Amino acid sequence: MPQSSNLAIDGARLWDSLMEMAKIGATPKGGCNRQALTDLDRQGRDLFATWCKAAGCTIKIDKIGNMFARREGTDPNLPPVMAGSHLDTQPTGGKFDGVLGVLAALEVVRALNDMDLKTRHPIEIAMWTNEEGSRFAPSMTASGVFAGAFTLDFARAIRDFDGKSIGEELDRIGYAGPEPVGGRPIHAFFELHIEQGPILEEDGTDIGIVTAAQGQRWYEINITGQDSHAGSTPMERRKDALLGAARLIDGVNRIGRMMMPEGRATCGVITVAPASRNVIPGAAFLTAEFRHPDERSLSSMDKNLANLAADVARELGLGIEIKQITQFPAQPFDQGCLDAIRAAAKKNGLSYHDIISGAGHDAVYMARVCPSAMIFIPCVGGISHNEAEDCKPQWVTNGANVLLHAVLEKAEVVTG
Ligand code: HGY
Ligand code: MN
Ligand code: MN
Q1: Residue 251 in this model has a pLDDT that exceeds 70
Q2: Which ligand is nearest to the CA of 291?
Q3: What does the pLDDT read at residue 3?
Q4: Max Cα-Cα span within the chain
Q5: Are 99 and 362 spatial neighbours (Cβ–Cβ below 8 Å)?
Q6: Does the CB atom of residue 194 touch ligand 1 within 6 A?
Q7: In Å, how far are 10, 262, 263, 384, 385 from 192, measured between CA atoms?
Q8: Cβ(170)–Cβ(357) under 8 Å?
Q9: Strands (E), 204-348
């Protein structure tokens, strides 16, 4: 058996797999558009399954399309050590968000095969359905079902803006599996991910020890006014839904700024009807989301939004309905898993420091059902959810080596 310090993944092989997967849904600007449950998602899943089978794994798929590629341990009765993330991307996503965590977990299995290493616990690579929450909101839907945050029926009924449901699309691409969702013991869960922010790159640190992820609240806002003629309706008699949306967008941003430096507030989607140049819009739809590490701050942001909406409705004579579509508090990760990651970074001679995740991840829900933690590596310019998202081969290799050692710490290598 190689010395522990010689246990290593094959960084070139991992980078090649990332670039191969990035071809599925590749965009002209160098990004990826492989949205959840599209034909491109199916192609990505098929390629992932082919690679896992080639690495000797057996694959199980659950009823919400989560995929689990299993490498047996010497004691099949022990709960698996799981590592993974997601393959779905934003419409203008990149090559690394989510994919890194899935393919680095595959590389861990490939490396163990190369080194002919056995572990007591089975190892499972997890690929979670619909992490992004872009086509189908909210995000992290399927890891949420696995952790009991959502029911399977609720998740299958979620519809995209074209009216297609998760259930219909899962069935259509052939990835509604037979396995029950969750309800089984997992020994530990690790997720490797790019930071998607600027901290690690700017301070020159190799590894982020992700101690927690901040809380989030997502909203859908419907604004109703009155369609009317742009030329003959005096200014003071208008019920302009688009103006109401504009006031809300500016107000949401102010709510976020009041909560700096940790607070985040974003309006990402707006639609307006009838969207005719010379008609005062009678209807508008807006999404908004707040994030903060502190639950009380999130509640005060929520209250400020309700007050803002009431003021805008009264001033402009509009109807404003706010629907909260998801919320979860800040999620701390498991100390034992975090210690395993720190030890792994040390063993690999890598610099590291604690960091809180601004983004949500499947590990946030997995932390509700098993000891979980995340590993961050830098990304170029801290850019993500952007076709320019980029990373460096050495960073990817560093992260996957830390994942390897952290997983082995929990899976227990069998010697002799
Ligand atoms: O929105 C997020 O934080 C993640 O990309 N789902
Ligand atoms: Mn992600
Ligand atoms: Mn993302």
Answers
A1: yes
A2: 1
A3: 55
A4: 88
A5: no
A6: no
A7: 16, 23, 24, 15, 17
A8: no
A9: 207-213, 215-224, 228-229, 264-266, 270-273, 279-280, 283-292, 319-328, 331-332
Query: Does pLDDT of 265 surpass 60?
Result: yes
360 lines ligand 1 (CB under 6 A): yes
Shortest-distance atom of ligand 1 to CA 289: 1
What lies within 8 Å, CB to CB, of 38 at 6+ separation is 135, 169, 173
Nearest CA to ligand 1 atom 4: 360
Instruction: Identify which of 35, 87, 128, 139 to mutate to test ligand 1's pocket (most ligand atoms within 8 A of the CB).
Output: 139
Residue that has been written with the tokens 């919400």 in this structure: 64
Cα atoms in the Cβ-side hemisphere of radius 13 Å centred on 204:
0
For residues 363 and 187, give the distance between their C-alpha atoms in angstroms, rounded to a whole number.
14
> Right CATH number for 215-327 from 1.20.1560.10, 2.60.300.12, 3.80.10.10, 3.30.70.360?
3.30.70.360
Please give the class, per CATH, of domain 2-214+330-411.
Answer: alpha beta
> If you average pLDDT over residues 204-233, what whole number do you get?
98
The Å distance, Cα 87 to ligand 1 centre, comes to 13
Among 87, 130, 269, 361, name the best residue to mutate to test ligand 1's pocket (greatest count of ligand atoms within 8 A of Cβ). Answer: 361
- pLDDT score at 287: 98
Domain boundaries of the chain, sorted by first residue: 2-214+330-411, 215-327
* 43 Cα: distance to centroid of ligand 3 (angstroms): 19
Is 241 within 8 Å of 225 (Cβ atoms)?
yes
